[in-house]
Amino acid sequence: MGFFRRRKDKGRKVVVIGPDGTPLSLISSLIAEGELPNFARIFEGGSVRPMTSAIPAVSSVAWSCFMTGKNPGKHGIYGFLDRNPNSYDTYIPNSNVMRSETLWEILSRHGKRVVVMNVPVTYPPRRVNGILVAGFLSPRLEKATYPASVGEQLKSMGYRLDVDPWQARENKDKFLEDLYYTLDKRQEAMFHFMETEEWDFFMLQIMETDRLHHFLWEHWEKGDEKYAPAFLKLYHKIDGLLGRLYERLTEDTTLVVLSDHGFCTMKNEVFINRWLQDNGWLNFTKDPPDSLRDIHPDSKAYSMDPGRIFVNLRGREPQGSVDAGREYEALRKELTDALSELREPESGEPMIERVYKREEIYSGECYPQAPDLVAMPCRGYDLKGSIKKAVLTEKGVINGAHTYDDAMIYIQGQDIKKQEVAIVDVMPTILRLMDVPIPRDVDGSVLI
Description:
This protein is an alpha/beta fold.
């Protein structure tokens, strides 16, 4: 095996199924209604708990926290879009900027063979002892796999990296066809590798649930005559997948089911940069600005998705205007107080649940890249970083929003002892199940 040690003994195996953005409350209600018989049967044989996500609760950050057991200050992924240090330039973070060893890399080092499919922030695929198929940010299938030969194999099977979410804006029926097909092919590939490869750890992340929720959650919640049954159809497919998988599990294998965040109906998108402009904390040299590079030197702060606020700090930002120390702290308090009072223009209800200082939630070698404040929205509000909006709030075709709470974790044959479960706890728990040493610098704790 070269880089990787050979297996001394097989030990316990683990299979992880990860439906993205699936709330425990949704699964529980569908089980109670008799819609998910396999979930019901499987959940009876283990322990299931609600789980909190990462801050902010977006898939790239949450799955990075899952795969490392660490906060973003250690792994370096703060959002779907991050900013280059000492500049206003942004980039899409991927595995090249992931600063921590992942769960499957640790298992590989200890002689365990892994198959990992579709997890966000795994492109470009890093070397493992086994197979890695990267997730939806991969440019094309041929570049998304380790080893590279797996890409051609998947291509011949009709495998797709992701659905086209833009389709949902124009034709929901075509979007749903694409969604079902993509999940079917993902399931087909999963069982192919499960039955033809030797493995100790197997993981499939299901992005189709997140895509469904963004565009059809409100249809489901309101019982839309056409699209509520279409919503349920995807969950029937996932329930069938779990049933097929469960029948194949041997006694030496533990099944884990987890989601990375919850979901609810979208009330409004909230454009924080518009709010900063309206209140005099942000100005641009042109209207509309092309990018953050057009920030005016007198600006005090700016925002990036979702709810991350950066002080325009002298010596750190190219056009910095705020001095470190007393002025910095006074501005953070001013912004925090103002955000806490931010209300929905029409209803008057609060839109911000809490504002965190960077030091309250982040620590580690990547801490200098952390936002200065992170606003956590009240349920149903999605904090956006657009710099071109003329309005504070807006509701478009996306009608489902992420939640920090109501994610889920299920572990077969185990008792989850911890009362408050966080997504960083899952990785050390899997290492314990597989009798592999847990790195000292993880933030999570073992659940069983």
